[in-house]
Amino acid sequence: MNSGQLFIAGGWRAPASGSTYDTINPATDEPSAQVGRGDERDVDLAVAAARKAFDSGPWPRMSAAERGRIVWQLGDLIMKNLDEMAKLESLNTGKTLFDSGKVEIPFAAEVFRYYAGWATKIHGETLGLRDNAFTFTLRQPVGVVGAIVPWNFPFLLSSWKIAPALAAGNTIVIKPASQTPLTALRFAEICQEAGVPEGVFNVVTGPGGKVGMALVRDPRVDKIAFTGSTEVGKQIMREAAGTLKRLSLELGGKSPNIVFADADMDAAVRGALTGIFYNKGEVCAAGSRLFLEDSIHDQFMTKLTDRVKSLKVGDPMDKATRMGPVVSKGQMETVLSYIESGKQEGARVVAGGGRADVGTGKGYFIQPTIFDGVTNEMKIAREEIFGPVLSVIPFRSVEDGIAQGNHTAYGLAAAVWTRDVSKALKAAKAIRAGTVWVNAYNLFDAALPFGGFKESGFGREMGSVGLDNYTEVKTVWVDLS
C-alpha cells in the first residue's frame, strides 16, 4: 500500500494536488497513516480509466466463468490477508479486533465468493410470443460504477458493492470515507495480485464534497452505489438528476426493537445489547429504539442495565474489549450532544451518559448509554445518533407497539421478540422496514437482500436482487417474417 497515493488505471500515482492528509487512530487521537488528498482531477483520471476498461478492455468481454474465478480469488486473498485487513480496519474505525477479524472481514470474503458463483448465472430469457419473431432478453453490465462508502463498516460495505459489480462485468471507481480508507487501498493490491485488469478497479481518497460529488456529476459514470446519511443521499439524488444516472441508496435508520411480554427475556436482553452496542452503535440498522411491553418493563430494564455494566470499553486491539472508541472526535462530540439533548428533554439516564475513562486520557470513548422514559417525539428517538445510545419506549399492545415502531421517517430494519408465531408474522408484515428480525438482531447473510423503506433509501444490496443494481435488461426482437 503506497503511502499518500491513489490507485488509478492499475497503478499507484500521487494525487494531482500533491497533498496528503493523516488518518487518525480514534483510540489514541494520533496519526495512523498518510493518505492522498484526491480531488476532481483525480476523479477525472479514474473515471476515464474505468470507462476505457469497460468500453474496450477485457473485463466485460471475458467469459463469465473466468470473471467468476477472479472474483472468487479475491475472496480467497482477503482471507489470506485477514490479520492485516482486520488490523487496518480496527486502526481506522476503533472497532474491536474481534469484530474486524472474526466477523466483518470474513463476511466480506464470503460476499465475494457468493457473487463469484453468480457470474455464470446472469442471463436473460427467451420469450416465444409470436410465430414470426424470435424475442429474448439480455442482462448486460450497467457500465462504470461509482461506489461511495461510509466509515462505519468500510470494507464490508465496499464488498456489498464491489463484488456484484465485478461479477456482472462492470468497472468501478470507489471513494472510501475520508476517515477510513486503508482497507480499500490494501484491497487495490489484492486486485493486482488476483489479476483484475487495468482500470477495472480504482480508488480515489479525499473529501466527499470534492471526490464523491465529482463521481456523482460525471456523465461517464453510469451508476452510483451509496451508503451513508439520508441528508447526503438526498444531495446525491439532486446532483445525479443532471445525468439521470442510476442510484442505489442505503441510508440512515432509527430501527425499532420491539419486545413483547411473552418473549424469551434473557435472549431479548442479549439482542437489545447487540442491537445498539455492536460497533459502538455506529450501525445504520442499529436497534436504537427499544420498545418494551408495559408488564415486563421493570424486570427487563434491571437485566439490561446489569448486563451493560459488564461491557468493557477500551483499546480495540485488546481481546477483552467489547466496545472501542467512536470513529472521530467530531462524531464523539455529536453523540455527546445528543446525550445532553436527551437529558434536557426529560429522559432518564439509567446507564452511562458521558465519556468513558479508559485510563489513557486519550481517544474518543463513550459510555454505553441507556435512556428510559423516552417518547417518539424526543430528538434522541427521532434522529439517527450513530453512537452507543439506546432510547427505551413503553407500549401497551401489539397494535400500539407496531404503530410506535413505524412512527419514524426511516425504515431500514426492525426486530420483534415473541414466542407467538402468529404475533411475530403479523408484526413482521406490518412493520415498514427492509429487514425484520424475529427473536434475533443484526444477523446478515450474503444471500439475503438488505436495504430500506421510506427515508432509509431504495435498492437492495446482497442476494440475487443485488445484481439488479449492476445490470441492464435489453430486449431483442428478431423479425422472422
Short description:
With 481 residues, this protein is an alpha/beta fold. The chain has helices at 40-56, 64-80, 82-93, 97-118, 154-167, 182-194, 208-217, 230-240, 265-277, 297-308, 329-344, 379-382, 398-405, 421-430; strands at 6-8, 11-13, 20-25, 30-36, 126-127, 133-141, 144-148, 171-175, 201-203, 223-227, 246-250, 256-259, 289-293, 348-351, 369-372, 389-395, 410-411, 413-417, 435-438, 453-454, 457-458, 471-479.
Question: Which regions have little confidence, pLDDT < 50, spanning 5+ residues?
Answer: none
Predict the CATH topology of the largest domain: Aldehyde Dehydrogenase, Chain A, domain 1
Helix content: 25-40%
CATH superfamily caption of the largest domain:
Aldehyde Dehydrogenase, Chain A, domain 1
Distance between the termini: 60 Å
C-alpha Rg (nearest Å):
23 Å
Structural class by helix and strand composition: alpha/beta
- Please identify, by name, the CATH architecture of the largest domain: 3-Layer(aba) Sandwich
The total of beta strands comes to 22
Strand order of the main beta sheet, please? 14-15-16-13-12-18-19
Average the pLDDT over all residues and give the rounded result: 97
What does the largest sheet look like? 7 strands, mixed
Overall number of domains: 2
CATH class of the largest domain: Alpha Beta
Number of helices: 14
What proportion strand? 15-25%
In words, what does this structure look like?
The protein folds into 2 domains: 6-251 and 456-479, 3-Layer(aba) Sandwich (Aldehyde Dehydrogenase, Chain A, domain 1), CATH 3.40.605; 256-445, 3-Layer(aba) Sandwich (Aldehyde Dehydrogenase, Chain A, domain 2), CATH 3.40.309.10. With 481 residues, it is an alpha/beta fold. Helices cover 37% and strands 21% of the residues. The strands form 6 sheets. A 7-stranded mixed beta sheet has the order 14-15-16-13-12-18-19, with helices on both faces. Helix 1 runs parallel beside helix 7, helix 2 crosses helix 6 (182-194) and helix 9 crosses helix 10 (297-308). The protein is globular and about 75 Å long. The model has no long low-confidence stretch (mean pLDDT 97). The relative contact order is 0.14. The longest helix has 22 residues, at 97-118. A hairpin with a 4-residue loop joins strand 3 and strand 4 (30-36). The chain contains 14 helices and 22 strands.
